[in-house]
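Reopening this one. Same input as before:
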Amino acid sequence: MAHEGARDRKDEQLDRDRIADDDTALTTQQGVRVAHTDDSLKAGGRGPTLMEDFHAREKITHFDHERIPERVVHARGAGAYGVFRAYDDWLGKFTTASFLTDPAETTPVFVRFSTVAGSRGSADTPRDVRGFATKFYTREGNYDLVGNNFPVFFIQDGVKFPDFVHAVKPEPRNEIPQAASAHDTLWDFVSLQPETLHAIMWLMSDRALPRSYRMMQGFGVHTFRLVDAAGHGTFVKFHWKPLLGVHSLVWEEAQKVSGTDPDFNRRDLWEAIEAGQFPEWELGVQLVPEADEFKFDFDLLDATKLIPEEEVAVRPVGRLTLNRNPDNFFAETEQIAFHTANVVPGIDFTNDPLLQARNFSYLDTQLIRLGGPNFAHLPVNRPVAEVHNDQRDGFSQHRVHTSGTSYNKNSISGDAPTPGAERSYRHYTEKVEGAKIRQRSESFKDFYSQATLFWNSMTPVEAEHIVAAFRFELGKVTDKGIRARVVDQLRLVDLGLAQRVAEGVGVPAPAEGAPNHGRSSPALSQLIAPVRSVATRKVAVLAADGVDGSGLTRLVADLRRRGAVPEVVGLTDGIVRSAAGEDISVDRALPTMASVLYDAVAVPGGADAAAALGRDGRALHFVAEAFKHRKAVAAFGAGIDVLEIARVDADRAEGAEPVVDLGVVTTAAEGGEMPDAFLDAFAEAIADHRAWNRPTDGVAA
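Same output, byte for byte:
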């Protein structure tokens, strides 16, 4: 009986702790009712966020501490060391930050790439934003440029960040789905918060499926401020542009990669650096004089907006090269701590309310994730600049302070460390005044025009992918009312888009929408002016016993000479025997690989090899799937037979002269008879990334 009484009391306690938050007033943790939770408390509609906003601080603080020990967001990541060097001193007219203005100065960096929504153990290739965070170890202290591969964010005010992330994370009742946005809570949030729509358009585009971290743009997202020696400010947006160009997976490919190699992007970065194929980006800036702050049809402080490159050009100012992998993932990639407020002289903030909240949130997060205030002592976080201050003790204190004082001012230690030394950081002087209000500026309330700009800027292929993405995502939403609300929002972006999405998700198509302004920005498209290169592209060369060894060897050597990464993929591991009796080493065994892990595929000649490949279902699927995903496909000699068995629909070469048909390159010649024009044509097809005009509807792969 005593046990039953104890159990009853425990059940009563559990009942009291089991909270249904439906139909109740929103309060703080202290029970104080909250009147408004969409905007931080600011000094005026466009003024800085006030620290006395106890609701925003409590909300964000609790959010920052919801996951232990992994990051709440950006948990899944990969990183590398490298260097940054400015091109010239041009930017010295606008900033005193020497690492941006002195071409003789080489600045060490650590860059961490990441997905946003998934847990630390999730896969690399979900549809998601990618983090692109760079720590510059400058002579004047650490500077962190904490950005994404989208130039805009989903919300305008940091007080909404917990709401957005809660919505996109797995649903609380069942912790499903992992690392995916295709579920009810995210789209419920989107349907009720139209400020999300511009970033949602990016999320539904190919930008959310990068082929490689090395082929991904990065953006600082916010408008920051450069400050010159006289204290004058200039607004700035930061851009990272990869020298390899911007390329993406297709959605079906991304899904299959998640199962075939969940570490696809992480492995790609690691292997490229180990092979000496160092990834590189140009750092570019868009500069806006303070006198032009209000010349745009959007607010520079609004993080859901971008400055079209056609209005303000991106000026390249330096180059980033990643050249060394970490020695230990946990000690370096996992323990690195970024913070938007880690700035150096010459770089300052604006009153962007999302940035203002991030300046609080990042530091707050590190305090619990890394066990206290001394996380800057960890080697990966330690600046190269000397550190002297009066901060003492705390968890994990690594420094042995021998000074007799730890306060300022003091007479015992000669007033050291002394503030006000030369090159000290000085905040930009800005007049701030306004009523203390919890309100959004009217200049932030255009939620649709830049989403329309993005849509108008897409090529037909990119637009088709966006429609398919909306259909997939909303097709996973069980509540048709949410689907209908999203479509109703999309009609204010573009009526045709809304109608095409509605047709695929089973809700009524709207008959009317907002007028499309017709403006576009070609720089937003990945396909209008792509970078064409075969460098670092992975090419599978299928082989079996009886292969044309001289032709295979020549093809592999030519691809390597051009900077590609060819791999001989055999039906089994070990070696294959050429038609001439030579042993050829196999790099990969077909059962361990898949076409989605390569950028192109080639089938060499040799009658016996072609016959063996033509009997193997995995080999045929490999070729057909690569063709379906519009990748470059090549075959020579008897290898053409394999393409035909796999039902690759392309014109067949009957002679030595190569035939190129929508990214499929063939020549009937083998061995030493293979013409250089065949090798050139295959390289050109790989450089195209994909044959986007190739019809693939009937391909069963």
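So the earlier flakiness isn't reproducible anymore. For the record, The mean pLDDT is 93.
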